[in-house]
Design goal:
CATH class: Mainly Alpha
Mean pLDDT: 91
Helix content: over 70%
Number of domains: 1
Number of strands: 0
Largest sheet: none
Strand content: under 5%
Structural class: mainly alpha
Order of helices and strands: HHHHH
CATH topology: Four Helix Bundle (Hemerythrin (Met), subunit A)
Oligomer: single chain
Low-confidence stretches: none
Length: 141
């Protein structure tokens, strides 16, 4: 028994160093994963905001500039689908708002040009998604 205590005391510095090294390795790995996740969310959020802006331009041209090709609702489908795809990388509230926008787009895109209500529903869903995206970007640490 005393031989075991003697070995433990003789190797205490080495065992402490090993414990500290393992703890540091674990923390470093966790921190790197958090940093990478934040980086992915940041990039996806910025791309998402760009797509949101593009879709907003399409609906404004469609609603306020009748006959302008930049306002063709068919062009908005690519933005709506890209927004939905980018949102999968984002936090849950952004994914939920992106799904709401896609649903609003599916239901109202055809009547966007002539129906004020359709325009308001899509525009409202875009604004909700924009605010959720900005909040998730502000929350990054």
């Amino acid at each position: 028994m005393s031989g075991m205590r003697q070995q433990l005391r003789d190797n205490l510095v080495a065992l402490t160093s090993l414990a500290v090294a393992l703890a540091a390795l674990g923390y470093n790995t966790w921190r790197n994963e958090q940093t990478e996740r934040n980086r992915n969310v940041r990039v996806a959020g910025i791309e998402l905001l760009q797509e949101i802006g593009s879709l907003q331009q399409i609906i404004f041209y469609a609603h306020y500039s009748a006959g302008d090709q930049r306002g063709d609702p068919r062009m908005g489908w690519a933005d709506a689908l890209t927004i939905n795809d980018l949102a999968t990388i984002m936090p849950a509230d952004v994914m939920r708002e992106a799904a709401e926008l896609k649903s609003a787009w599916e239901e109202n895109a055809e009547s966007l040009v002539e129906d004020e209500g359709a325009f308001r529903r899509i525009d409202g869903a875009i604004e909700e998604l924009r605010q959720a995206t900005l909040a998730s970007l502000r929350a990054l640490r």
